[in-house]
Amino acid sequence: TCRVVVLISGNGSNLQALMDDCQKPQSPAQIVAVLANRRDAGGLERARVAGIANEWVDHSAFAERETFENALRGRIDNHSPDLLVLAGFMRVLTADFVRHYQGRLLNIHPSLLPAYKGLHTHQRVLEAGDSEHGCSVHFVSEALDGGPLIAQAKVPVEAGDTAEVLAARVLRQEHRIYPQVVRWFAEGRLKLDGQQVLLDGEVLPPQGRV
Ligand code: GAR
């Protein structure tokens, strides 16, 4: 089985979707630990309920990003992960950290990347008047929200949508595609080859599997 460590900062609804999928019989992946950068991350309780090791490393206790990351890396690597999954982890990671997990580090972002990198994506989509929105799963590279795309899901923007309504519509898709991508990786079907993503040996298009 593929040993997965999940990093969170908040509610952990994506973590929940991943845990639910990994608990199915014959799942190729096992979540061995959940780590948060804040003690009050709601997802820690979800991990507790699921009987999964859960820890927190409070980033605000460290003066430098590097010292925080060194502590985090130590905790992560204690669990010998084959795959590190960012699920609503809201700290920017240094190039050193990203390089250490190159090819085994995934992120989910609530936009159709490369559009709307960064924060407040739903509000920005509404303000732009876009008719389409969505989410993206990608291998993490040193560029913020810039790594090679693996999968995307699209949702319509409806008249009268608020950021909250739109976020909920996108989250339902996040909960569908993230477990799928983790399965692909755990089954050995998904590889990062330089800047290219291979699924079953085939190069995926730039937007990934849509
Ligand atoms: C999700 O929408 C995820 O895509 C986003 O935070 C939310 C976490 O929700 N991630 C980012 O914005 C990363 N920059 P969750 O805690 O319920 O999974």
From TrEMBL:
Pfam families per the UniProt record, alphabetical: Formyl_trans_N
EC number: 2.1.2.2
Reaction catalysed by this enzyme: N(1)-(5-phospho-beta-D-ribosyl)glycinamide + (6R)-10-formyltetrahydrofolate = N(2)-formyl-N(1)-(5-phospho-beta-D-ribosyl)glycinamide + (6S)-5,6,7,8-tetrahydrofolate + H(+)
Positions annotated to bind N(1)-(5-phospho-beta-D-ribosyl)glycinamide: G12, S13, N14
NCBIfam families assigned to the protein according to its UniProt record, in alphabetical order: PurN (TIGR00639)
Family indicated by similarity: Belongs to the GART family.
Protein name: Phosphoribosylglycinamide formyltransferase
Species this chain originates from: Ventosimonas gracilis
